[in-house]
Design a protein that fits this description.
CATH topology of the domain at 200-327: PH-domain like
Number of strands: 31
Distance between the termini: 152 Å
Pfam families: HMG_box, PH1_SSRP1-like, POB3_N, Rttp106-like_middle, SSrecog, SSRP1_C
Helix content: 25-40%
Structural class: alpha+beta
Biased composition (Basic residues): 517-531
Largest sheet: 8 strands, mixed
Region (Disordered): 458-551, 609-706
Biased composition (Polar residues): 695-706
Organism: Ardeotis kori
Oligomer: single chain
Strand content: 25-35%
Shape: elongated
């Protein structure tokens, strides 16, 4: 006979809800692991007192009773598995697996029996229904009547909230049967009553979920959160895990309490209680117990008088009362040296902590994902920018979590961590349509060649080189645009509509124009087209050298036809998978040969890029100089034409001096429509005044005497 029996898709009944998981029976005892929460129930073989096999709604079920009164129910077995289980119980646990069916007569009167943590309503020798007394939240009595109220089950659509029992009046030994019934229920019920004094109180602690400031009162069996609006009573039995996480700023600490079932605020459920502490906050704590009681109850884990950081005191007290280990971050360190990664989940930004056995995200909403429930992880490109990437996790139940906006520098650290934990890594493109084939080799992804990682590294190197080149080029051009010795010709070159104005003002009044504030405005305007030039440089140049391929891609290009001939009709995705397997199985000597080829290709690329960048700079400078020269020649031609026009004006004014004199004196209200600069008008006025002051010629004097 086998030493162990394992059953998948078994359901454990807990507080009226059915939790699926895996059941394992061994010589040492019975172990059930909840698939949803990861909680493990371990029943030692020596503690088992009775085993019952019966027919239930989901097929057949197994009920186990322990010597200390606890009851465990597991459903989902097939009828054919009874013989196997019965033989196993006889051989290893020395127990007879009794068959006992439920009564289905439909009668509503019978006998109530209390056994351990269970209330059983029986008709004859057959049970009709059973109520775990830990589900009872309140028990009230009336005349010949007992009312039981139950905790609400958040996982069920419909919850049983109340049951009433009618107890016939009898006088046996002067004991009231109603009170006796109620006392039996209350002795085992989960009724939280704040009787007595609290062991200790922590005042005004900052709580992130649920949000607010709360006083935390520590009682022997439960935790009392007292706020301005809401109060919560949390039994220690509902605490699953404790986490102590350092904030990224190294000045604060998160203390996270995982709860199942969660606490409720209206329709909102809080599966995590998150407290935020400052590392500088200290406290001196005195427990409301004498030293003997402290020593007897906590066995040296706590002392009556303690002092230290506030977060240390809270975590130490909780660890002692809940009797669970505190989970802290492992050996992971991000790019900045912190033990967490800044990212976004849904609409909020938070911190993702890679732990030794899972991931936890704080804080809105908090998420805890265990490694054993992860189907695969995926590294995806960021949707908005190439400076970040997304980290996707899909569980075996099909739930997907996407942590976005992670800095690109964190990729290597996170990839190494995931790879070391032997998690299945898949690219988005290979996932579609190939899920079944990948599931068959889920454990072989650990050491496979990661083409995406190589591509990311290559692109990162090239992007950095291009960024350095562009930053050098932009620095030179910016210095040119702010060169104090720059001529006005360059400004006119960018703004052709004002070219004549700038040239004439430079000829007429250059000294004063250099001191005018308008010069600054010209420099600011001059930068806009420079940005456009930079943007155009970032575009892809068809003449630029092509990026080199990695060793794997060089080998794949050389071997693609060979793989196709060996596997006729193979698809592209299957070919990629087959190539990855061949590359993985290749010897180091052959891989080194392709590594050398990839290194040679990279050197050739770097050399070609240097030649390309030098050539592009020289061509752009030549084009710029020729453009400036052409503009200068055009302005010189324009200036000569203006001088000829001025000379013709002077000759015409010499013929009619009286007219020129009258035109030189213009009214103050006169506004010229000409948009030329002040330098031009001043120059023309001075020329006209000079002509008007000449003495009249002999012909003019003769005509005047006439």
């Amino acid at each position: 006979m086998a030493d162990t029996l394992e059953f998948n898709e078994i359901y454990q009944e807990v507080k009226g809800s059915m939790n699926d998981g895996r059941l394992r029976l061994s010589r040492q005892g019975v172990i059930f692991k909840n698939s949803k929460t990861g909680k493990v129930d371990n029943i030692q073989a020596s503690e088992l007192a009775e085993g019952v096999w019966r027919r239930v709604a989901l097929g057949h079920g197994l009920k186990l009773l322990t010597k200390n009164g606890h009851v465990y129910k597991y459903d989902g077995f097939r009828e054919s598995e009874f013989d196997k289980l019965s033989d196993f119980f006889k051989a290893h646990y020395r127990l007879e697996l009794a068959e006992k069916d439920l009564c289905v007569k439909g009668w509503n009167w019978g006998t109530v029996r209390f056994g351990g943590q269970l209330l059983s309503f029986d008709i004859g020798e057959q049970p009709v229904f059973e109520i775990p007394l830990s589900n009872v939240s309140q028990c009230t009595t009336g005349k010949n009547e007992v009312t039981l109220e139950f905790h609400q089950n958040d996982d069920a659509e419909v919850s049983l909230m109340e049951v009433r029992f009618y107890v016939p009046p009898t006088q046996e030994d002067g004991v009231d049967p109603v009170e006796a019934f109620a006392q039996n229920v209350l002795s085992k019920a989960d009724v939280i009553q704040a009787t007595g004094d609290a062991i200790c109180i922590f005042r005004e602690l900052q709580c992130l979920t649920p949000r607010g400031r709360y006083d935390i009162r520590i009682y022997p069996t439960f935790l009392h959160l007292h706020g301005k609006t809401f109060d919560y009573k949390i039994p220690y039995t509902t605490v699953l895990r404790l986490f102590l996480l350092p904030h990224k700023d190294q000045r604060q600490m998160f203390f996270v309490i995982s709860l199942d079932p969660p606490i409720k605020q209206g329709q909102t459920r809080y599966h995590f209680l998150i407290l935020l502490f400052s590392k500088d906050e200290d406290i001196s704590l005195t427990l409301n117990m004498n030293e003997e009681e402290v020593e007897k109850r906590f066995e040296g884990r706590l002392t009556k008088n303690m002092s230290g950081s506030l977060y240390e005191m809270v975590s130490r007290v909780m660890k002692a009362l809940v009797n669970r280990k505190i989970t802290v971050p492992g050996n992971f360190q991000g790019h900045s040296g912190a033990q967490c990664i800044t990212c976004s989940y849904k609409a909020s930004s938070g911190l993702l902590y890679p732990l030794e056995r899972g991931f936890i995200y704080v804080h809105k909403p908090p998420v805890h994902i265990r490694f054993d429930e992860i189907s695969f992880v995926n590294f995806a490109r960021g949707t908005t920018t190439t400076r970040s990437f997304d980290f996707e996790i899909e569980t075996k139940q099909g739930t997907q979590y996407t942590f976005s906006s992670i800095e690109r520098e964190e990729y290597g650290k996170l990839f190494d961590f995931v790879n070391a934990k032997k998690l299945n890594i898949k690219n988005r493109g290979l996932k579609e349509g190939m899920k079944q084939s990948y599931d068959e080799y889920a454990d072989s992804d650990e050491d496979q060649h990661d083409a995406y990682l190589e591509r990311m590294k290559e692109e990162g190197k090239i992007r950095e080189e291009n960024a350095n080149d562009s930053s050098d080029g932009s620095g030179e051009e910016t210095d040119e645009s702010f060169n104090p010795g720059e001529e006005d010709d360059d400004v006119a070159e960018e703004f052709d509509s004002n070219a004549s104005a700038s040239s004439s003002s430079g000829d007429g009044d250059s000294d004063r124009d250099e001191k005018k504030p308008a010069k600054k405005a010209k420099i600011v305007k001059d930068r806009k087209p420079r940005k456009k030039q930079l943007e155009s440089k970032k575009g892809k140049d068809p003449n630029a050298p092509k990026r080199p391929m990695s060793a794997y891609m060089l080998w794949l290009n050389a071997s693609r036809e060979k793989i196709k001939s060996e596997h006729p009709g193979i698809s592209i995705t299957d070919l990629s998978k087959k190539a990855g397997e061949l590359w993985k199985a290749m010897s180091k000597e052959r891989k080194e040969e392709w590594d050398r080829k990839a290194e040679d290709a990279r050197r050739d690329y770097e050399k070609a890029m240097k030649e390309y960048s030098v050539g592009s700079k020289s061509e752009s400078s030549k084009a710029e100089r020729s453009k400036k020269k052409k503009k200068k020649q055009e302005k010189q031609v324009k200036g000569k034409a203006e001088k000829k026009g001025a000379a013709s004006k002077s000759s015409s004014s010499s013929k009619s001096p009286a007219k020129s004199v009258s035109e030189s004196f213009k009214s103050k209200e006169f506004v010229s429509s000409d948009e030329s600069s002040s330098g031009e008008s001043k120059k023309e006025d001075s020329e006209e005044e000079g002509v008007a002051s000449l003495p009249p010629s002999s012909e003019d004097s003769a005509s005047g005497s006439d």
